[in-house]
Design brief:
With 268 residues, the protein is of the alpha/beta class. It has a domain at 10-82 and 204-267: 3-Layer(aba) Sandwich (Rossmann fold). It has helices at 52-59, 82-88, 105-109, 124-137, 156-169, 186-201, 213-219, 242-267; strands spanning 12-23, 26-37, 41-46, 67-72, 75-77, 90-93, 174-178, 205-209, 222-227, 230-236. Strand 7, helix 6 and strand 8 (205-209) form a beta-alpha-beta unit. The radius of gyration is 19 Å and the shape is globular. The two termini are 26 Å apart. The chain binds adenosine-5'-triphosphate (ATP). The site of adenosine-5'-triphosphate has 11 residues, from strand 2 and helix 1. Pfam families: ABC_tran. Keywords: ATP-binding, Nucleotide-binding. Residues 14-253 form the ABC transporter domain. One of its GO terms (molecular function) is ATP hydrolysis activity.
Length: 268
């Protein structure tokens, strides 16, 4: 195993190494490195303030690391911006999904990537149809009547579904989802998790940030656990358990050590 985690399977899409980020005296990320491979679903786990969202922002080019390297398909990029990462095919759903409340669901889904005809006019009906299809197939969310509804009229969970729909429609290579299910009801959550598994079959990778370790264990091929800005675990699903992930998230390295000692004792 390398310091960047296990290396089974497909082509490496994204590789971060030695990522360090400080906010004033606070070291928010300390020498963090990992790889995301093609068709992999990776859980990014950790307690509040562990550094997950900051890593997501660095992966998507919203925040610049103070040190470390970012490589995409083996090619190093210096301080990529959000536009750069979008061009590479990285699509991110942030915790605060940044929708425009005064616009319709459709306009939010297609924002900045509107369909137009040869004269440059918006193809509104086509966009409405696609928006409706995505909402039906990806996050079967209750209570959305029409893609022409204004986002301001939606609940928190419904808005989250729209943000997810936007990201998955423009899926290309890597989807990064920062706590996408926190406001979703059970059925919508299950639909989204099933969708991530389906995308994997199409070779699309995902990084899932979540506090729900059971969800993570269910859908992720690999798990990365962060603790106080450091990566303390990078392991495959086969090599871990919900118990180990819980110990690592809740108690950090001490918990991991205790968990491993308890396994040894059980085997004796
Ligand atoms: N813009 C910022 N300015 C100052 N400190 C920040 C900033 N962004 C994050 N931090 C600090 O960095 C640390 C990691 O924050 P981050 O949001 O990445 O954690 P997280 O693992 O996503 O937590 P949560 O699960 O609570 O969302 C925290 O101590 C946080 O206060």
């Amino acid at each position: 195993m390398s310091s960047n985690g296990p290396e089974p399977g497909g082509e490496v899409l994204l590789e971060l190494s030695g990522i360090t980020k400080r906010y004033g005296p606070n070291v928010c990320l300390n020498d963090v490195g990992f790889q995301i491979r093609k068709g992999e679903v990776v859980g990014l786990l950790g307690d509040n303030g562990a550094g997950k969202s900051t890593l997501v922002k660095i992966m998507s080019g919203v925040v610049r690391a103070d040190a470390g390297a970012f490589a995409w398909r083996g090619e190093k990029l210096t301080a990529p911006t959000r536009q750069d990462t979008e061009k590479l095919g990285i699509e991110t759903i942030f915790q605060d999904s940044a929708l425009v409340p005064s616009l319709t669901i459709t306009r939010n889904i297609f924002m900045g990537r509107e369909l137009t005809n040869r004269l440059g006019l918006l193809k509104l009906r086509a966009m409405d149809r696609i928006a409706g299809d995505i909402l039906d197939s990806v996050v079967t969310i209750e209570g959305i009547k029409s893609p022409r509804q204004l986002v301001s009229s939606l609940s928190g969970g419904q808005q989250q579904a729209v943000a997810i729909a936007r990201a998955v429609h423009f899926k290309r290579s890597l989807l990064v989802l920062d706590e996408p299910t926190s406001a979703l009801a059970v059925r919508a959550t299950e639909a989204l998790l099933a969708y991530l598994t389906r995308l994997k079959g199409e070779g699309v990778s995902s990084v899932l940030v979540t506090h729900n370790l059971h969800h993570a264990y269910e859908v992720c091929d690999r798990h990365i656990v962060m603790n106080h800005g450091r990566k303390i675990l990078d392991t495959t699903r086969e090599q871990t358990s919900v118990k180990e992930l819980t110990a690592a998230v809740v108690e950090g390295e001490t918990g991991l050590r205790r968990h491993r000692e308890s396994l040894i004792t059980e085997r004796k």
